[in-house]
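Our consortium's second objective concerns turning raw sequence data into structural hypotheses that experimental partners can test. To show how far this objective has progressed, the report includes one record in full. It was chosen at random from the queue rather than selected for favorable results. The single chain below, 79 residues long, was entered without modification.
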Amino acid sequence: MSSQLIDLSIVVPCYGSGSWLAELVDQLHQALHASSLDYEIILINDASVDDTWQAIASLADADERVVAAREAVASYRVW
């Protein structure tokens, strides 16, 4: 990302979603393409045990608008 301010941050918690994250990111890019907004897509791995983190890291490596983040412990709670 450049040093300019971001107009829009899209935060996506990800759990067990490695197989479809690339499609989601592509659809977000398509939806925002016509806008003049500077945006970022923040993908947060929520302690997923599948290939979600690898998918997130790959997407972030390929596109500077995608930011990878990782939670060591799942943030959801079961009451």
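The partners drew two points from this record. The longest strand covers residues 39-46. The chain has two helices and three strands. Both points have been shared with the crystallography group to help prioritize constructs.
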